[in-house]
């Protein structure tokens, strides 16, 4: 309020400029607030740079809205922008680990290791700096109830002994051993995992809303994990519109959280079965448009929301033409697993497993990692990433946590 | 929490009047409003609305704790022991409080026997004996068998406790999905009153499979089934978390068409290479798991796997699969999905006192897909 009452003379602008402004009856700061630079220039006849200077000095347009240059971003990021998983091949696939400041979605079939990856991340975020860690803390929002503290202890113990081994090896002889060793223990690891058990969607949403406050009290938090975002959404409401709006709002909060506090946000998601179900009308359209419609468009057609969560599809007449299209339609998506890899329906249909929560949610996560079973092994595939090409690797869940597989 | 009425929140009268005017009855109703709608409906400033939102979120959000505190609590209130030492060691104590464990297996393999045995384990079990709530949907619960198992386990001197112990198992027998839902509504109250240590549902599959057959006319059955199951899973998990008890459900099996999914055999071949990673765990005895499949699986053949599908597999925290072996009388328990344990196999037999795990278990970090695990069923009689 006081600022706005300030006279323009007191801002330290060149006298020629203040004189001209005065001539136009622009005397106090608030007189200028509604002007754009070009408008001010027209009114006063000052040149544009002078107008900009005047407006910058008195306007409420503070410098925090000025954006950021790429150079700033890189300098701010420093060398530590990823949380490593302790599985080298998985880190490679993710481009160095789980990215800070971004929303990563881990989607997987049951028992593929989603929760185990979350537990691993909440430990490895705390690795000491000399060990490529960031000495952070973790927030674990548990919607599934699969969080067992003794399992976390097991993973933490392994991480500690892993570090001890590294420290005693030659490469790290120069490190200040005493200082580094004292703070990284299983007890400290478990104490730095902040746990919330959420029993309803509202409680997950509320928890997320209050996280900024929590993180400002615990500024060392570097990762926020939600395991899983799908569970409560899948039973809480059967109304798709409400579900979508709930998802949008929670996503917005999570992305803000990630960027404002520079934390990695990891959410897990379940898989659902989809039958590419094509009614005769669409069939006909597709057939005549066959030449013109791009594959992309066809894919979008099959992805209407009412197909989600359907396991039993309609029986399709198996004329060769339709069969062909059917295969195209269901085979085109990158994030669907064909039946040959994971059978979920009793009948031999073109059922595919696809991430739950629908198409619009697919846009929300910056990075999307798919965990599944392939040829009797756990396999991780990067489905979506702004900076890495699609890649996949095998990994194992051991007593120690997530680890790589020896290639044979 | 979501259904809490706004009138109970201690808001001032002016706000409450505005809430009533716009028929905002519950907390959830208010929180579903956008900030602008909230300002309009309640006639408050943006700052006031934001403060109110934060206040309401504060009511709904769970309080934070650390993993360390949870670990202390786990050590204080031990998980429900399975009664089998080896299995307990592998599963970090047994059946964890606050989680839902599923026992899936073909008919006659001993699902109900496991349930009864676990009930007694809870009743008698170690440091904290507690009553059990048993929901029997298949009319498979036989009091005589419970008496037999109990008498076997109790010493001569303890036989007098029999009536008291029998009074600590509460059995519900729902006959329809709606009936079971009604029971679940009142279950938290009953569990807290009794101080129950375990809730057992034997089986979770039978009612939904009967009431919503997969190929029902209209095709809506499948949707309903998923909603009902999701609802039950959420309620059981809430119950488990609030009352600090273990929930155990049983599931049936279904047969599926085989495509070239990894079979148990393929899994065995690869298990060896994986185990080399376990150098630091050399102390534990680890071997390749001989998964005994009923028949040789060929591409295109049918196989048996837990019922209720992929979505339900997500909902259970732990999946234990029970299956037949080629040895007479010997069955296998496979730890197929668990947040604490690797893929493991234990042989067990059914005895007069309940279940007896014989021999050492074998485990592998190879894991298996719990959704498509192949279950070996009872071999047919030869003609």
UniProtKB/TrEMBL annotation, chain A:
In this chain, composition skew of type Polar residues spans 333-343
Location of the region described as Disordered in the Swiss-Prot/TrEMBL record:
289-343
InterPro entries in the cross-refs: AAA+_ATPase, HR_Repair_Mediator, P-loop_NTPase, Rad51_C, RecA_ATP-bd
Cross-referenced SUPFAM superfamilies: P-loop containing nucleoside triphosphate hydrolases
Where it mainly occurs, coarsely classed, is nucleus
* Any GO MF annotation of the entry: ATP-dependent DNA damage sensor activity
GO biological process terms, alphabetically, are:
meiotic DNA recombinase assembly; reciprocal meiotic recombination
RecA family profile domain span: 79-271
Q: GO cellular-component terms in the record?
A: Rad51B-Rad51C-Rad51D-XRCC2 complex; Rad51C-XRCC3 complex; replication fork
Give a single Pfam family match: Rad51
Instruction: Report what the protein is called.
Output: DNA repair protein RAD51 homolog 3
Species per Swiss-Prot/TrEMBL record:
Hyalella azteca
From TrEMBL, chain B:
Q: Which residues form the RecA family profile domain?
A: 76-253
Chain ranges passing through the membrane: none
Q: Which GO terms describe its molecular function?
A: ATP binding; ATP-dependent DNA damage sensor activity; double-stranded DNA binding; four-way junction DNA binding; single-stranded DNA binding
| Cellular component terms (Gene Ontology) | Rad51B-Rad51C-Rad51D-XRCC2 complex; replication fork
Q: Which UniProt keywords apply?
A: ATP-binding, Nucleotide-binding
The record, for SUPFAM superfamilies, names: P-loop containing nucleoside triphosphate hydrolases
Q: Which GO terms describe its biological process?
A: double-strand break repair via homologous recombination
Q: Which InterPro entries match?
A: AAA+_ATPase (IPR003593), DNA_recomb/repair_RecA-like (IPR016467), P-loop_NTPase (IPR027417), Rad51_C (IPR013632), RAD51B (IPR030548), RecA_ATP-bd (IPR020588)
Q: Which segments of the protein form a coiled coil according to its record? A: none
* The protein, known as: DNA repair protein RAD51 homolog 2
């Amino acid at each position: 309020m006081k600022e706005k009452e300030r006279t323009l003379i007191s801002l330290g602008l060149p006298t020629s400029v203040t004189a001209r402004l005065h001539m136009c009856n622009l005397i106090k700061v608030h007189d200028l607030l509604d002007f754009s630079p070009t408008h001010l220039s027209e009114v006063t006849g000052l040149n544009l740079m002078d107008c900009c200077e005047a407006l910058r000095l008195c306007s409420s347009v503070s410098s925090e809205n000025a954006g950021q240059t790429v150079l700033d971003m890189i300098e701010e990021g420093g060398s530590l922008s990823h949380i490593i998983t302790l599985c080298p091949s998985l880190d490679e696939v993710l481009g160095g680990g789980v990215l800070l400041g971004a929303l990563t979605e881990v989607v997987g079939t049951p028992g593929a290791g989603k929760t185990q990856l979350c537990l691993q991340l909440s430990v490895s975020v705390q690795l000491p700096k000399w060990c490529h860690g960031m000495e952070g803390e973790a927030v674990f929002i548990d919607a599934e109830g699969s969080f067992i503290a003794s399992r976390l202890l097991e993973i933490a113990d392994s991480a500690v002994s892993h570090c001890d081994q590294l420290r005693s090896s030659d490469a790290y002889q120069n490190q200040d051993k005493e200082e580094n060793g004292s703070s990284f223990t299983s007890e400290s690891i478990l104490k730095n995992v902040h746990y919330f058990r959420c029993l309803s969607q509202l409680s997950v949403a509320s928890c997320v809303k209050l996280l900024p406050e929590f993180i400002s009290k615990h500024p060392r938090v570097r990762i926020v994990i939600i395991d899983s975002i799908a569970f409560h959404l899948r039973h809480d409401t059967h109304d798709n519109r409400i579900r979508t709006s709930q998802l949008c709002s929670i996503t917005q909060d999570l992305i803000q959280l990630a960027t404002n506090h520079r934390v990695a946000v990891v959410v897990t998601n379940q898989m659902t079965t989809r039958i590419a179900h094509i009614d005769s009308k669409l069939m006909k359209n597709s057939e005549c448009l066959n030449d013109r419609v791009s594959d992309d468009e066809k894919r979008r057609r099959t992805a209407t929301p009412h197909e989600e969560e359907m396991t039993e599809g309609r029986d399709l007449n198996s004329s060769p033409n339709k069969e062909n299209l059917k295969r195209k339609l269901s085979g085109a998506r990158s994030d669907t697993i064909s039946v040959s890899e994971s059978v979920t329906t009793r009948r031999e249909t073109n059922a595919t497993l696809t991430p739950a929560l629908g198409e619009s949610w697919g846009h929300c996560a910056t990075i999307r990692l798919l965990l599944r079973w392939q040829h009797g092994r756990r396999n991780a595939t990067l489905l979506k990433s702004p900076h890495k090409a699609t890649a996949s690797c095998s990994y194992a869940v051991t007593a120690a946590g997530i680890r790589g597989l020896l290639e044979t | 929490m979501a259904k809490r009425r706004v009138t109970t929140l201690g808001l001032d009268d002016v706000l409450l009047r505005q809430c009533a005017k716009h028929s905002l009855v519950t907390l959830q109703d208010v929180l579903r409003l956008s900030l602008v709608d909230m300002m309009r409906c309640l006639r408050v400033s943006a700052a006031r609305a934001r403060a109110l939102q934060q206040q309401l979120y504060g009511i709904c959000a769970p309080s934070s704790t650390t993993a360390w505190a949870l670990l202390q609590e786990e050590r204080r209130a031990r998980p429900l022991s399975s009664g089998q030492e080896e299995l307990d060691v592998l599963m970090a104590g047994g059946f964890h409080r606050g989680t839902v464990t599923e026992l899936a297996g073909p008919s006659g393999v001993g699902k109900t026997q496991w349930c009864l045995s676990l009930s007694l384990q809870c009743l008698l079990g170690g440091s904290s004996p507690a009553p059990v709530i048993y929901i029997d949907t298949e009319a498979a619960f036989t009091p005589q068998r419970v008496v037999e198992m109990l008498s076997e386990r109790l010493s001569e001197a303890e036989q007098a406790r029999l009536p008291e112990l029998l009074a600590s198992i509460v059995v519900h027998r729902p006959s329809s999905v709606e009936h079971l839902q009604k029971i679940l509504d009142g279950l938290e109250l009953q569990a807290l009153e009794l101080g129950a240590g375990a809730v057992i549902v034997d089986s979770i599959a039978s009612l939904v499979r009967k009431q919503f057959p997969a190929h029902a006319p209209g095709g809506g059955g499948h949707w309903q089934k998923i909603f009902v199951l999701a609802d039950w899973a959420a309620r059981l998990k809430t119950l488990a978390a609030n009352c600090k008890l273990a929930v155990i459900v049983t599931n049936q099996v279904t047969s599926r068409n085989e495509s070239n999914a990894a079979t148990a055999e393929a899994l065995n071949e690869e298990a060896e290479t994986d185990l080399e990673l376990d150098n630091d765990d050399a102390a534990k005895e680890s071997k390749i798991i001989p998964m005994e499949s009923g028949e040789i699986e060929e591409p295109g053949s049918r196989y048996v796997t837990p019922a209720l599908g992929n979505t339900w597999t997500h909902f259970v925290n732990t999946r234990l699969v029970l299956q037949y072996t080629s040895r007479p009388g010997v069955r296998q328990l496979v730890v197929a999905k668990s947040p604490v344990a690797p893929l493991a196999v234990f042989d067990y037999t059914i005895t007069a006192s309940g279940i007896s795990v014989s021999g050492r278990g074998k485990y592998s970090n190879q894991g298996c897909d719990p959704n498509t695990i192949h279950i070996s069923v009872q071999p047919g009689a030869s003609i």
